[in-house]
Amino acid sequence: MALQGIDISNWQKGINLDALAIDFAICKATQGASYVSPDCDRQMQQAMKRGLLVGVYHYVNGAGVDAEAQHFANSIKGYLGKALIVLDWEQGDNAARGNTGYLDSLVAKVKALTGLTPLIYASQSVFPWDIAKKHGCGTWVAQYANNNTTGLQGNPWNEGAYSCDIRQYSSCGRLDGWGGNLDLNKAYMDAAKWQQFAAVGGAAQPAPTPTAPATGVENMDALDLVAGVFRDEYGKDDDRRKALGSRYDEVQKIVNHICSASAETLAQETWAGDYRNGSERKAILAHRYDEVMAIINGNVESGQTYTVKSGDTLSGIAAKFGTTYQKIAAKNGITNPNIIYPGQRLKI
């Protein structure tokens, strides 16, 4: 089970959460020892009224452990028991950056004041896995493939590279209902697990257990490895075989297919969703990308297509065009008609 959602701050002041097709919203509440996000309570009240799962976060700035913890705890009293809480550990505007001892003490103080075990948010490159493990904190990891705009992703680009409770995969998300960028996240839990994190005095036991990022290739998605091969990250011949280890045959088979298959075959497979979207597709198809997209774009011009929007269902799309969801699924190689994604282009 997984959930899709956003995190917001006063940069998204006035956002109408009723208009977004999301499962959860995590709102910035405080920063340092005195700042309170002006739009936080409005955002939280709207989210809770709608029935979204909610969270609140504190941006750590190194103003002092006791002062920051007390400010955060005092500011979120009304949300305790309803929202999970997060400590946002970043490098910018943080006098304590790099000092994990500060974070260690802050986590302990926040736990003591609120009765909740906070999640820790940080960039993958500096994530304090040891602190999270020590305190039993949930892990919220930020890592982006690029700065291209994207919708919600069922399978983010780095899925499987390491375990975490929430994965922030883009800061350039675009969703129907809001005209600007949004941080997009996938939470690896169901509503019951979310509420467990929010339960005051409850034993929040993150699932999965925090682990450091995998150093090898065993847990990486095959298509990510294929893109790496085309970027020459794994060398050639024996060097590639050694670098990919037990994944070599699987990955090389896909590489060989992309290199040797006809453009028409690759176009059909792309239509079926085999090679993802946007910049990820370009990285996977590599030198074949332009010729494949020329065929796809030609088909778009000559055939009827539909771009999936947030909240769409396959049966609803079928009804609009006077067809059946089974026919659309068959034309697009969709094996599970309950799963479609905003931005996905369907042949009708």
Automatic annotation (TrEMBL):
User: InterPro entries of this UniProt entry?
Assistant: Cpl_7_lyso_C, GH, Glyco_hydro_25, Glyco_hydro_fam25_subgr, LysM, LysM_dom_sf
The molecular function terms of the Gene Ontology recorded here are:
lysozyme activity
**Annotated ranges, domain LysM:** 304-348
UniProt keywords, alphabetically: Glycosidase, Hydrolase
Entry's PROSITE patterns? GLYCOSYL_HYDROL_F25_2, LYSM
Q: Does the keyword Magnesium apply?
A: no
Q: Name one GO biological process term.
A: carbohydrate catabolic process
Q: Which family does it belong to?
A: Belongs to the glycosyl hydrolase 25 family.
Q: PANTHER family this protein is in?
A: LYSOZYME (PTHR34135:SF2)
- Report the protein name in the record: LysM peptidoglycan-binding domain-containing protein
Tell me the lineage of the source organism.
Bacteria, Bacillati, Actinomycetota, Coriobacteriia, Coriobacteriales
